[in-house]
Specification:
Helix content is 39%, strand content 23%. By secondary structure, it is of the alpha/beta class. It has a seven-stranded mixed sheet, sandwiched between helices. A hairpin with a 2-residue loop joins strand 6 (191-201) and strand 7. The longest helix has 17 residues, at 20-36. The chain is globular, with a radius of gyration of 17 Å.
């Protein structure tokens, strides 16, 4: 079975539609990722089945939370999961990817060009710097982050980027301890855990933490990166 047929069958199995155009874009994504991965370490998973399940399908967990035309910021975008996957699946979304690694940012820019995507861009900057910058602070409906950092730290990166009422969607594995540890940070930053969606992708147990921004973030947040890491809220 070729890649596009395999992807469409697997998407359908998990309740996701995939027309021929989207399937071709995912094929282009896969080929470009595997080729680029030979010179820049982007992922340890490069086989077709692994990328379809562990990267593409997993990234789609947030799709039902995106309103039409949502402005989405992705923190630590790396190889483009979940941001590019969400953009392909939901072309109406407007996506900004924050990636501090220059080589990975270059990959993202090249990927966008290769796939002919519009309404998506890569910014070579740290999320905490973006959170203090006009045009980014409190500008987004949704923030996503996958395999970035622990939840209490992630909340300080994400909440300043969100509009009031916006949502952070954090892709996690088992995370009960992280949620408990993040209660103080959530309170300080004006965030409320509104859902912990558990799901399974090909035997891998996953959780999507959904935090809603309930109040404006105090101007002093986010702090500088070194302090966020050494003195989590």
């Amino acid at each position: 079975m070729d890649f596009t047929a395999k992807l469409r069958d697997k998407f359908a199995e998990y309740g996701y539609d995939s027309d021929a155009e989207k399937a071709e874009k995912f094929l282009g994504y896969y080929r470009f990722l595997v080729g680029y991965n030979e010179k820049v370490n982007l992922t340890a998973i490069t086989d077709e089945d692994g990328v379809i399940a562990k990267h593409f399908l997993d990234s789609l967990a947030a799709t039902s939370y995106l309103q039409e035309g949502a402005k989405l910021a992705d923190i630590g975008s790396g190889a483009g999961f979940p941001a590019v996957v969400l953009k392909i699946y939901r072309p109406d979304a407007d996506v900004t990817m924050f990636e501090s690694n220059g080589k990975k940012t270059a990959f993202l820019e090249a990927l966008i060009a290769r796939l002919g995507l519009t309404g998506i861009r890569a910014a070579n900057m740290r999320a905490e710097d973006a959170g203090r910058k006009e045009g980014y602070r409190e500008a987004f409906d949704v923030v996503t982050a996958r395999a970035v950092t622990e939840t209490r730290i992630l909340l300080e990166y994400a909440m300043p980027l969100l509009k009031k009422g916006g949502r952070l969607m954090a892709y996690k594995a088992h995370c009960a301890d992280e949620v408990a540890a993040a209660e103080n940070a959530a309170k300080i930053l004006g965030a409320e855990l509104t859902e912990a969606k558990e799901y399974v992708v090909e035997g891998n147990f996953r959780t999507l933490l959904v935090y809603t921004k309930t109040a404006e973030t105090l101007e002093k947040y986010p702090r500088r990166n070194a302090r966020i890491a050494s003195e989590p809220l």
